[in-house]
Amino acid sequence: MTKRADYRAVLESLPPGQWPAHLNAESGLPGPRGNLELAEAFADVAEPGLVRLCAGSPDEYLALCGAIGLGRLLAEGDPGAAGTLRALAEDDRWRVREGVAMALQRLGDRDMTALWALAERWVDGGPLVQRAVAAGICEPRLLRAPEDAAKAVETLDRITAAVEGTDSGARRSEQFRVLRQGLGYCWSVAVAAAPASGFEHLGKWARSQDKDVRWIVRENLRKARLAKADPSAAGRVAVILEQSGA
C-alpha cells in the first residue's frame, strides 16, 4: 500500500468526529512541510459536510485539507464547490492557496473539459485567482493531450498580458508578487508540453519592455525542462531576452 492508502485506512477506522484532531496530530506542522499525503487521503474519503467544515476552518492545515477535498466535490458535480474554492484562492494562507491548485488538478484528472470551463470563468479574476488557474492547469499529467497543452499556453498568455497591463501601484502588492512568482515556473510546464507554440509565445514575451514580464521569462529559462524540451528554441528565447535589454 502507498502512504496515501495507509492514511485513508487509518481515517476510515476512526469516527468522523475524531478526524480533525487526527489531521492536526499528523499534519507535520509547524515544520517546513505539511503532510500532503494525509491531506490527499482526507480529500479522497471525507464526507462532504466535513470537507466544507474543514475548508472554512481558521486552522491552516484543516483548511488545506478542506480545499483539496472541495476538488473532489467539484469533480463529482457539487454546484457550490467552485464558489468556495474561488474564495479560498484569495486566502491569506499560502498552504490553503496551494490546496486550491491541487483541487483544480483533481477536477482535471476527472474532466479536463470542466477544468477548462472553470479556467475560462476565473482567468480574468484578481492576481491570486489567476495564480490558482495557472498553478492548477500547469501540471504535467494534465497536459499530455496536445489540445490541453495548447490551451495551457493560451491561458498563460492571457494571464501574462494582464501582468503587463498592471499599474505600478498594484505591482507593489503581495498578491501581484505571488502571481509573478507562480508564472516564473508555470510557463516552463506549459512550454515543455507544447514546445512549438510555447516557445513562440515565450519569445514574444521575451521582447516585452515590462520588467516583470521579462523576469518571468528569465525565471522559466532557468528550468531544466525547457532545455530538455528543445535546447535550440530555449537558446533562441534567451538570445531574444538578452538582445532586447534584459
Question: Which features would summarize this protein structure in a list?
Answer:
single chain; 246 residues; 15 helices; elongated
Task: Provide a quick synopsis of the model.
By secondary structure, this protein is mostly helical. The protein contains 15 helices and no strands. Helices cover 73% and strands 0% of the residues.
Characterise this structure.
The structure is a single chain. The protein is an all-alpha fold and 246 residues long. It has one domain (3-185): Leucine-rich Repeat Variant (Alpha Horseshoe), CATH 1.25.10. 73% of the residues lie in helices and 0% in strands. It has helices spanning 3-12, 19-25, 36-45, 48-55, 60-75, 81-89, 94-110, 112-122, 127-137, 146-164, 174-193, 195-206, 211-221, 224-229, 231-243. Helix 7 (94-110) packs across helix 8 (112-122). The radius of gyration is 19 Å and the shape is elongated. The protein starts with a helix and ends with a helix. The mean pLDDT is 97.
